[in-house]
Design a protein that fits this description.
Blueprint: H1 15-24, H2 32-40, H3 45-69, H4 74-116, H5 123-139, H6 142-152, H7 163-168, H8 183-192, H9 194-197, H10 203-206, H11 213-241, H12 244-249, H13 253-257, H14 269-300, H15 304-319, H16 325-356
Helix pairs in contact: 1-6, 1-11, 1-14, 2-8, 3-8, 3-11, 3-16, 4-14, 4-15, 4-16, 5-14, 5-15, 6-14, 14-15
GO cellular component, one term: membrane
Organism: Alkalicoccobacillus plakortidis
GO biological process, one term: spore germination
């Protein structure tokens, strides 16, 4: 049975805000507005609100499921609700899902570095350097991971001055006329935002490490709200800056918008943005790999160092397999279909099963 970590290994309840927001706010920020605009046009800002509201519901479901089963984490929840064998299968699937999220984020960021800065730089070299640092952070424990997430969550604020040049060239008429897109298209656009909002489901794994669980839930909701607000701001800034034709031809709208920013002390602001984003995505990757490795540790009763090393090797091998733009596109599109299965399929299913079962807690045969 999974044991609740001692108090000195836990983090304060307010850290749930940064853990949720830090896991969600990552590489997807640089290009999500283009994809939702392709489906729902410039009214797709409504899709951001819908996706944010759905994410709030998922967070509530996670905490509710844990309370009903009276189990500390996803491993024990699966075992309690589905028994030894089916529960083990569910745990392994979630572990692979978290590892896949790490691959998607890492490979997408490496592509940005290769396109914008170092064209000839090998994928394996960036991935290896990044994952070696990630290994050091992960084996130091969850408190270190939470601390890094807290610290790096403030870094995007350094890029706030780049908003001014965008507003200077703003074309507000792009947002009109309002409410001309069908609700079905808006729902489809919100579906595409799955990758951008992925990360709240990690609560299922680090829940035992949170102090004052009731307050932690409130902070988790606030963290997701902060993500939604940030995405709304970025969406509006992108839409008022790019015309529909320009947005179709721009792969990373947020990143491209930084090119117009120029200050006395620095000319290429986008280089600074890419460098800062390396630290912004770091919590995305270490949190997902840590969660994946912890589930495997609980499932197979082996040391955390071994599971972390195995998963880092797996992530490294998977990352270097995607060598072309089409392959990376396929990887990102795949997670937009796989993600909803876990987030909007398995998580509500767990809650429904917890209501159906009369016996709460304990292990199934």
């Amino acid at each position: 049975m999974a044991q609740t970590p001692p108090n000195h290994l836990q983090v304060p309840a307010y850290m749930a805000f940064f853990l949720v927001h830090g896991a969600q706010f990552g590489v997807g920020v640089l290009g999500f507005s283009r994809y939702i605009a392709e489906i729902a046009g410039y009214q797709s800002w409504l899709a951001v609100i819908i996706a944010g509201a759905a994410n709030q519901l998922i967070i509530w479901m996670i905490f509710k499921t844990i309370k009903r089963t009276q189990q500390p984490d996803l491993y024990m929840v699966n075992k309690t609700l589905f028994g030894k064998w089916l529960g083990s299968m569910m745990t392994i699937l979630f572990s692979l899902y978290f590892a896949t999220l790490a691959v998607v984020v890492l490979r997408t960021y490496i592509e940005i570095v290769q396109v914008w800065i170092y064209i000839e730089l090998a994928t394996w070299s960036i991935a290896l350097a990044f994952l070696l640092v990630a290994y050091y952070a992960i084996i130091k424990g969850f408190r270190v991971i939470a601390g890094l997430t807290f610290l790096f969550s403030f870094l995007p604020l350094l890029l706030t001055p780049t908003i001014a040049p965008v507003l200077e060239y703003a074309e507000w008429y792009h947002l009109y006329p309002m409410m001309t897109t069908s609700f079905i298209d808006i729902l489809k656009a919100s579906f595409i935002l799955t990758l951008s909002f992925a990360g709240a489901e990690l609560i299922f794994v680090y829940y035992p490490f949170l102090q004052d669980k009731e307050k932690a839930q409130q902070y988790a909701h606030l963290g997701s709200l902060a993500t939604t607000i940030a995405y709304l701001v970025i969406t509006f800034l992108t839409f008022i800056y790019y015309s529909a034709e320009q947005l179709k031809l721009t792969i990373w709208p947020t990143l491209s918008a930084w090119k117009i920013a120029s200050f006395v002390f620095i000319e290429r602001v986008e280089y600074i943005g890419i460098a800062i984003w390396l630290l912004v995505i770091f919590p995305n990757i270490i949190l997902t790999i840590w969660a994946s490795s912890r589930l495997l540790k609980l499932q197979f009763r082996i040391t955390h160092r071994k599971t972390v090393f195995f998963l880092l090797l797996l992530v490294f091998i998977a990352t270097i397999q995607f060598t072309t733009r089409d392959a990376i596109n396929m990887l990102n599109e795949s997670i937009n279909y796989i993600g909803p299965v876990f987030i909007f399929g398995f998580i509500p299913f767990l809650l429904v099963v917890s209501f159906i079962r009369k016996k709460k807690g304990g292990e199934s045969a």
